[in-house]
Each structure stands twice: as structure tokens, then as C-alpha cells.
Request: fold
Amino acid sequence: MRDPEPADGGTPQTVPAAVNSLGAEPSAYLRQHAGNPVHWRPFGDEAFAFAAARDVPVFLSIGYAACHWCHVMAHESFEDQATADFLNAHFVAVKVDREERPDVDTVYMAATQAISGEGGWPMSVFLLPDGRAFHAGTYFPPRQMPGRPSFRQVLEAVVDAWQDRRGTVEQNAATLARGLAASQPVSAVQLDRPPEPIGPALLSGAVEALAASEDPDAGGFGTAPKFPPSPVLEFLIRHAAVPTPDAPAGETGTAGAAKGMAGRALAAMSRSALFDQLDGGFARYSVARDWSVPHFEKMLYDNAQLLRVYVHWVRLGGTDEYPVAEAADVALRTAGWLLGSLGLASPGPTPSGAPAPAGAAPEALASSLDADTVVDGVHAEGASYLWAPAELAGLLGPDDGAAVSRLMNVHSRGTVTAEGSALHPARELSTAEAGLWERVRPVLLAARSHRPQPARDDKVVAGWNGLAVAALAEAGAVLERPELAAAAERIAEYLERVHWTAGTAGKPGTLVRVSHDGAARGIGGLLEDYAFCAEGLLALYSVTGRTRWFALAGDILAAACSRFAAAGVLTDTAGESAQVLNAQGGSASLDPFDGATPSGAAAFAGALLSHSALTGSAEYRSLAGNILELLPPLAVRAPRAAGWLLATAQAALAGPVEAAVAGPDTAERGALHRELLLSPSPGLVVAVQDASGPDTVPLLRGRGPAPDGSPQVFLCRGMVCELPVGSAAAVRERLATMVR
Reply:
């Protein structure tokens, strides 16, 4: 194998021996490509140095394990020997899992959109050996199609440009990098001055802007493709819980509008094909406006966020159109799916070194289930989930089969394939219909379990597991399912044991983003990982009262401040790769917008607010306020992309309302604690005396039981407390006067 002819016409250089290097990677997506004839390498200095030594460009392919079109391009092109030979001869091929390296994905997605006007996965980017992009696209077919060249044509054109027009290629790369630097969505957050306060009018204006883009008939916002707007729904639920100048909480005005929009979206999604009506859990998105045709991958980050949102809807009290009982059922089934389908029982060796016993409870959560199912060697999107009327009749009998076909919108003409449809009622079920469905659901689920199943990506992402810790802990508290809170604790223990390295004197700890088989691998955590883990641990502390989780959250936040805000400038990354910095013009960035997950900056602000309310830290509250200064330009202009900033701002405006639960661990204290956990107040934080050890939470210092030894609650603002109360009714009444 030889390099391309050099541009100066000299003698070509022999290519050093190379092989596919993905077999031992923690990412399932990368390991899926380990058998390709392409000589893939993981993203890193070694790959780019190899390209520089060979004087060839880098071909960067970005995707993820559950991506349907990633599988298609892999089969068509990366498994083809002739295509692989050309790639190996003329490029250094680098494969990236966007879930493992969102910092890489974000930068090169911006480059792809700037170059091609489109974005998505698989992403195909051509780079200089220093990481700067000069050409890009998404999916390229094996043969030319109208308006889209074949992959081989693209490769040959890039090689021609590299050989014959190198100066132009390098100039284009430099121009693009400068353009990406200039188009960063925000300037650096100013951390060295008092923050400007955010007023209620800004948040009410965001609700009005969201109402203008709502799809009131089908629920949600905009048109197809439709993604679950989880951060926006969290904001709307928080806004609905707070009285506004024009109305009481959740009744009319923007509070009522917020509650209506949230309820319509939650109802529509849970009654649609987006929600797995048999086994629970939500698909990534719908390609149809009415949520009837899902894109079938099921992601941890979506389901963790949605579980928490549905639990918060239950806590808010629901509406007649979307009642609490229905939302609670969706939440429980989503939690069950998370633990049953993504749960990893003792990944790798247990702390003692012994293997995990059979049937052991999950200790961490995998990343996703694939969109595709491999049937007879062919990737078929959604094949595990589709039904035809004849199949239902064969399993259930002609009468029940016909009734379920009508109920679940399964017709002779399929909604997804020619004959296959995803089950969904698209409306609230009557009592009789619900009875029929509960009777046949186990039969259909058992039959589906015998079909080929989608693959699971077993990598453990710290931040996404942090999202799940918060959701499972609060679900356990609100839905009175202590086993869910216990599951949250097991995941937190895994994160502490595997992903976290405690700091030493004068040196903060570190969090690793990804683990596989019980071992941490790859880059340090990004801002979102630190923020989501801290948020989850603080929620877990509020539910369990175990101060170890409060302490760990504090350590993680301190490490995040040191890693991402040490120089007075907040960034999403800590410069993990020089190539990424080169691609975006040499400086790290901060993105305030939500993507598939909430903005890392917004989540960091939320965790800082909660921690400051428990500790009285003016520094952390000020830092959160500095971050929230990102919001005013976005609140009305782009509220759908700033949901978590809006939700955090709502919490900042409503709080802090601090609740300290003191006294012996009795049933009476449990009732007081539960009353607090059922409050929808977005500014409320809860501290509980830990029966297992000394109180280390500043909010609890000096708080004790009533003179008769009974438990009581101290309700405070800014660490200044009112007289304590000793009954759930009194807690509820006092909280109602403190919500604002």
C-alpha cells in the first residue's frame, strides 16, 4: 500500500503497516466497526500525528451505536473492501462515538453545517492533520443519487484537491476555523462581578414565545421531526407551580398557559408510538408530527429526563385532561424499562473482586438500545416493535386481535413499513379499553421477547447516569416506590467507585466521562458530566438524607469550578484535544443551548443554586447568577433551545426556600419529609438530619427537635428561618405562602 503521489511530483512514500484499532475501545459504536477492512483509529494525538507523518488528510466519521443511517453507511461503504482500500491508501480514518466525545461532535457538527448546510449522523468530515476541517457532509451513498454524490466520488475529489490544490485546501480550513470562532453562540460568562438579577417578566415572555410555537393539536412544539422537549417541559412545570402577577399558580395567565402546554405534550407523547406501550420507555424522536412514527432508538438521556418530568407533573397535580394516575403509570413503566433494559448488574468485578451473582440489581445504566434489529443478517429499523393485524389476531384470537388493532392503530396498511405499525392509542383509554389492554399486554410483550432484539450500547456515561440518579430518587419519593430510590443509590455508588477519583490536599478530584466493564476509560468528564452528577447527588441527598451524597456533590462542584472556571471564564471542556481547539479557532467555548441533553452550563448553574441554598454559599449563588446572564438574549428569541436555563432561572427567582428536617427518624419525621418532597416549588431545597452520622450540612446546624423531642421542620429564606412547624398540614400551609 502506498501514499498518494505527493503534490510536488516526487517519489511516493511507503505507508507504514496499519490495522483497525477499535477492538478494545469502550464504545460499542467503535467496536461495531472493529471488523471493518477500514484501518480505523480512535480520535487522539496518535491518529493525527500519523496523518502528519504520512502527509495525508484525516477522514473523520462520527456516529453512535443506535443510529440507523450509521449502520447503513457502514454496510454500504465501510464493509466494502474496495472502498476500504482507497480510504486506507489516501487517508487516516478516525471513528468517533458522539456520545463518548460530544466535544468533538459539537465542533465538527458546526463545521459540517457551515460547509454543507446540513447536519446529522453519520457525519463525514475531512480534516488537516492539525484537526481543522476543510470539507464535510453526512451520509454519502455507495452510488450517485440525484443531488448527492457517491462516497467514492467524494473521496476522489478530496484526494484531487489535496494533491493539486493544497494551498486552497489549507486556506479554506483556516477561513472556516476563523468563522467558527466568530460564530460562537455566546461570549464568555463574566465570573468576576455581581450578576444582574432576572425578573419574572422575562420568564413570562418565554412562556408566551413558546405558546406561539406550540402544536396544540398534536402536542409539543414545531413540526416533524419532533423530539421530546424535556428541558422546556421542566421549565413549564416549574413556571406553572409559581404564582405570577396576573394569576395564582397553575390557573390562568402564563402559569396556566405553561401548565396547559406541558400537559398537552406529556399526554400526547405517552399515548403515542413514541412511548413503548408494551414495555415502557420513550424512543428518541418521531418522524411524524403526531408522534405516530418513532425513530426507534431508546436513549438513557431521554428517558432519564422524561422520567423526572413525568414525576414532576405528578407532583404538580396534573389536570383533568392528563390526570396524575396516568402520568404516574407512565413514570413507573419508564423507570422499570430503564432498570430492566439498560441496567448493568455489577459491570466488571464487584468491589470485593468477586463476580456479581445472577439476577443482581443494576449498579449502572447503559447508554442506549439500537434503532435497528438484525433480522437474517439485515439491519431493519424498528423490527422488534412493529405489528400487523393478522399477527395480533393470531396471538389474541380474532375478537381481541381485532379490538386491539383498532385500539392501537394497527391497520392493514402499516404506519412505519408497508405492513408494520407501532402500537399507540393516540388518546386516553376508557375503563373498558384499559382493562382489555392490561389483559393482553403481557401476552404481546412475551411474544415480542422472542423476536430478535436491538443491540445495547453498554458504555456507562457519567453525566447520563447522574440524570438517572435524580430521576429515580425523586420517582421513588413521589411515587412511594423506595426500590427506585435504592436503585439511584446503587448508581451513585458506582459513579463514586468507578468514575470519581477523590482529590488530595490542594488538588481537586476528577470525574471520568465513560466506563465499560467496570473500568473508567478515555477523557475526563465534561462540564455536563460534573453538573449532571452533582445535580443527581443533591436530589438523592434530599430524598435519602444521607450526607455522603451531599459531600460528594460538593466535591464534584468544587472540582468543576477548578476545571472549567478557574481563570474567570466558564467553558464546556477543559481542552481535552488540541485538534478540537484548532478546529474552532483556538479557544474553548461555552454553549448555552440544550441539545439532546440539557446545557452543561445551565445544569451547572442549577446544581450551584441547590448547593448554595444548603450551605449559604454566596460565591456559588453568584456564579449561578453569572451563568444565568446568558438567558436574556435567548428567553424570547430561542426559548425552545434554552429550556434548562429557563428552568434554572425559575428556581432562582422562586427561591431559595430552604427546609431543614430535624429530629428523630420516626414515622412523624417521615411524614414531614414526604410533604416537602411532594411540593412542586421550584426554589425548594430539603435537608434532612442523617441518623447514620454527624450533620455536615450547614442548613442543619443548630436545628434540633422540638422541646418534647418530636421532629420539626425549619422553613427558611437565605438561611434565615421562621418558627419551626411540626405537622404536614402546617408545612403545606407555610410553603404555600413562601412560593413566589
Q: What stands out?
A: The chain has 26 helices and 24 strands. The CA atoms of residues 2 and 14 lie 5 Å apart. The longest helix spans residues 431-449. Confidence is low (pLDDT under 50) at residues 1-16, 351-355.
